[in-house]
Structure formats: structure tokens, C-alpha cells
């Protein structure tokens, strides 16, 4: 089986490079996350970030108090309502990260060639000659003469003069005598320490992480936990147990691969995690520079084959202090898209950067251009080849068959949109896995436990043909490490106002490439196909489709209110017409658009 896949389809003419974008309002399919901090936490800036293309908000608990992050999250919720745009929320843990302790108020100046001692003695004050670190002991870490150590400010860019590279000369107990390789001034909100080839035995969740998850995360029903310094699949099991213990069964886990141990166990980590973050900043310290691209391409490919969303960090560091990226950075962002990255996660650029909003606009614009050159059909064929679909013994499950059929059908008829019905979000993830060229409108439907109705399944009535009959066999994977409790979306009213329950599934879909989630209230008294009609009407209103466009619909019906899919799913082809649904004048009083009961919701919210 060939493995040297290249998913780049160059433009037909170099002159096309000079053409202006015809539709700047079309969002990028690639997702974009922002680390929120001092420069990106006011309502006004957050509104601008959402309009510019932010789909994931990262709250990094390596620094800052719960009160600080709560104020930022409250502002984000206001911004989402004001802009009517949805955003996924992510709690990033500190994990076994090593930091410098007992820092003086003034910056610490270091000179190239001088001696600097790292010590585990936490009672020592940090100075120009000694830095106390938070790690308990250097014994068994593998630290030895010649080891490379990096000390730099939190979310370092690599180009600033606030970081130092050290070479270990001697290890004496819990002290390491090092030589400074460059002149710098250590400053910033926090100073982190990264030791190349170190085996870090500290718990995967620090005490502060446990408190943050159980208090802040549980209170805010956070969508994802980003697990820093993930070393193996067992680490993911630890955080899942903590999430389950505090009522966060729905919260998903993003494994952050940022050291050699995580890279070695990448296969098991990808299988166990819900998504993956390639943290190039820290991993780049552990790897030789000439090996970094290999790690990046192999990891992205592994995530693509497994259908796990993968994001990448450290893309436009220059924009922390400059209004434009370098040519190399711009090319790097495009190559990440072509290599299969589902999303980009910005760090210092939005955390403390001077041009946070401009950075988001720039990265999204680059991603859009790269998507135009992404060879979707070659990518699709590479996955079919991986599953052995061109042999006598294919290994394609029912869920994969349905998802791949929807994407293949969309390519064949040049569809403008794929509509997916889902409860847990897994159907949307599988369709996104095949990276179609068109957006994926995901209708998050409810399988709430209520009284039985005569009509036990959603209908796909209307014009069109059934292309394939396949099944999900259950939206959740059978792997016990990945199995999660399913709590499905529902809408309830106490007689005074409507409350949306289960928004988390829709927000989690914001991590999937090309997916735009909306929520549907499955009012079974509606005529057959009404939810689909409303979804198409919504797509028309926001400019995703026009009359005459082709649309592919993918659905696996449920019998009763089971969270397990039936054996009969369908992929349907329809053509958008000029039909206007009565009462479909849509207003948005909630960032998560609700179809099916929108008139009632709008009246209640007026």
C-alpha cells in the first residue's frame, strides 16, 4: 500500500493567484482555536474574534486564577449571544509542567557563557545564578552532562529575547549546573522549563488541575479538557475518571502530544483520545530540528486515518508583535492544511499578542486558500485504500460506509452542502473525517427519554433518491477506554422561559473540520421531513446554499429513544428549490440556532 500521499492540487494558472477572493464571507473549513488571556478577554475583542473565525476558546490553567478565567468565560458567553456565533470551550491543564519558582519582581538577566544552576530546592530565591524549579527531584529523569534545557516565558514564541537555552555540564543530586547558550532577560507571566529527553514521573494532573476540573470545569460544563504532556493511553484514563466523578461524562479529552514519551506512544494515545493537539513548541525542543517535520506528518496522518480531529500549535509567532506573518509562517499554515490538520490553535498570538483579531483573520484567510488547493478526491481515495476498499477483502465498517458514501456522493454531484443528523456528534465526526470540499451542516437532534410517540423515527421525505443503505451500529466506539455516557440534547420549559439542555454536543462539533452545528427540537407532531426542511431553509438564509444547489443528507434513524443506531441508514440526494416554509422567518436569539420549535422560542425570548 502506498503511503507517500500528497493532497495538493495546484491552481490551473499562476495568474489565478492574483485574483481577489470572490466571497470573503464564506468561513474556512479549518477550525481555529484561540488562547484567551490579557489581550483577548473583553467582550468587544471576543466578539471580533468570533466574527473573524474563532471556533474554539482555550482557557489555559498553567497560569491565572479560576476567578480570572470565569470572568473571561462569562464575557465569551455574552460575546456569543451578541454575535450569534457558537464557540467550543476547552480547559487546558498544567499537568506535569515544570515552572520556575520564587521569582523576583525584576526580570532576570542572563549572559551567554555564564553558569546557571537549576535546583529542586524550593526555598531558594530565583536569581541570575540559580533557578529553583517545581519538579520534586532530578533523580531518574535521565538528566546528564550534555542534556539540553530550555527556560522561557509561558507561551514563548522562540524569537523573543526572554528565553534561554542551557547545556547541562554537571548533575549533583537535585542540582544541575548549566551553561547559558545565549544572552536573554527572563520575564513574563510565568517561566516554564523544558528538559529534552526527560522522563517526567509527575502525576498527569497537578493538584491545581484537579481543583480546576472539579470546580471551574464542572460548574461551566466545559466541552473539552486538553491534557498537557500526555504520555500514554493510561493518562487519558486518569482524566476520564476524574471527569466522570464530577459529572462531566459528556466532556471530551484532547490529548496534547508535546514530548518524546507522548510521541513514542502516539498510536495508543490517538486511539484512546477524542482528539489530539500537536504542541510543536514543546515537542520541537525535544526533537532535532531536522526531525520535526517527520513527527508532524506522521502524527497528522495517524489522526486522519483514525478519524480523530487534530489541531496544531505555533504557526504565526511573529504576529505576537507584528501585523503580518513571515513568508515561511504563511506557507507553514497552508502546508498544515494540506497535510491534514483539522484546526489551528493560536497561543501567544491571541494570549498576549498586539494583533489578536488580525491574526485570526490572517490564519483563516490562509486556510481558505489552502482548502481550495486541497485534493479532496485523492485524500478520499487514500482512506479507501487504507480500508482495503480496492481489494477483495475490504475492512470498512457500517459507520464508515455511510460516512464515506455521503462524502463520495457530494463529490460526484458537486454538492454545495452535506446535512448530517446526529445525537452524540460522532456521525458528524465521521463525515468530517473524509474532508469533503463542502461544509457539513450538522443537525444535533434529541433522543430524550419521553413518552412514546407513534412516529418513532425521523423522516427524510421529499424529493430525492436513497443512494446507500448502511448502518451506524452505535455512534460510540466499542473501545472501553473511549466509551462515554451519552446525554442527549433536549429543550425544556418551566413555563417562564425555554432552556437548552445538551448544547455541549453541538459545541463539541465545532472542533470538526467543516462542521457547522445547529440544534433541532424533535417535535414528532411536525409533518415528516419538517426538520430537514427547516435545516435547508436555514442554510439558504445564511447563504450556504441557493435554489438549484445539490445537497446530500446523511441520517441513521433511531427506533424509539435508543442511543444506538439502527442497521438502516440512508444517504439522500436532494435539490434546493424556492419553497418557503410557512412561518420560517428566522431570528437568532441564541448562538445555537434551534429549528423545529423556533417560533415558540422566539416568542418566549422576546
UniProtKB/TrEMBL annotation:
Cofactor: K(+)
This enzyme's EC code(s): 2.7.1.40
Top-level taxon: Eukaryota
Reaction(s) this enzyme catalyzes, per UniProt: pyruvate + ATP = phosphoenolpyruvate + ADP + H(+)
Root EC class: transferase
Keywords of this entry: ATP-binding, Glycolysis, Kinase, Magnesium, Metal-binding, Nucleotide-binding, Pyruvate, Transferase
Pathway of action: Carbohydrate degradation; glycolysis; pyruvate from D-glyceraldehyde 3-phosphate: step 5/5
Entry-linked Gene3D superfamilies: Phosphoenolpyruvate-binding domains, PK beta-barrel domain-like, Pyruvate kinase, C-terminal domain
Record-level GO BP terms: glycolytic process
Entry-linked InterPro entries: Pyr_Knase, Pyrv/PenolPyrv_kinase-like_dom, Pyrv_kinase-like_dom_sf, Pyrv_Knase-like_insert_dom_sf, Pyrv_Knase_brl, Pyrv_Knase_C, Pyrv_Knase_C_sf, Pyrv_Knase_insert_dom_sf
Segments forming domain Pyruvate kinase barrel: 30-360
Molecular function GO terms recorded: ATP binding; kinase activity; magnesium ion binding; potassium ion binding; pyruvate kinase activity
Pyruvate kinase C-terminal domain location: 400-560
Sequence intervals crossing the membrane: none
Name of one Pfam family that matches: PK
GO cellular component: cytoplasm
Recorded family membership: Belongs to the pyruvate kinase family.
Protein name: Pyruvate kinase
